[in-house]
Design brief:
By secondary structure, this protein is mainly alpha-helical. It contains three helices and no strands. The longest helix has 43 residues. The chain starts with a helix and ends with a helix. 0% of the residues are buried.
C-alpha cells in the first residue's frame, strides 16, 4: 500500500468510526432515557396489574382493536432477554476496550 492509499484507507476508518460512535452515543442516550420506562414495564409485567389485564383479555373484556402485545407472555420476556444480552455485550465491549487501551 503506497502513502496515498494508506492515508485514504485511514481516512475511511476515521470517518466510519466517527459515524459509528456518534450513532452509538445517540442510541445509548435514548436507551438511558427509556430505561426508567423499561423498569416500569418490568414492574407491570411481574405484578398483579399485568395478570388482571391478561385475564380480562382472555375473558374477552377488552376491545378487539386494542394493541395488546404487552399482554402476550413472550413479548416482554423476549425484551428482558434482549436487554440482558445487550447489557452483557456492552460489558464485553467496554472490558475489551479498557484492556486494549
Amino acid at each position: 500500500m503506497d502513502q496515498i492509499e494508506r492515508i485514504e484507507y485511514m481516512e475511511k476508518i476515521l470517518d466510519d468510526s466517527n459515524e459509528a460512535i456518534n450513532k452509538l452515543f445517540d442510541s445509548l442516550e435514548n436507551y438511558s432515557v427509556l430505561h426508567d420506562k423499561y423498569r416500569e414495564l418490568i414492574d407491570y409485567y411481574s405484578g398483579n396489574a399485568w395478570m388482571k389485564d391478561f385475564e380480562s383479555d382472555e375473558a374477552g373484556n377488552l376491545p378487539q382493536d386494542l394493541k395488546r402485545g404487552v399482554l402476550s407472555e413472550d413479548a416482554v420476556y423476549d425484551l428482558i432477554t434482549k436487554n440482558h444480552l445487550l447489557t452483557v455485550k456492552m460489558l464485553e465491549i467496554v472490558t475489551n476496550n479498557v484492556k486494549k487501551g
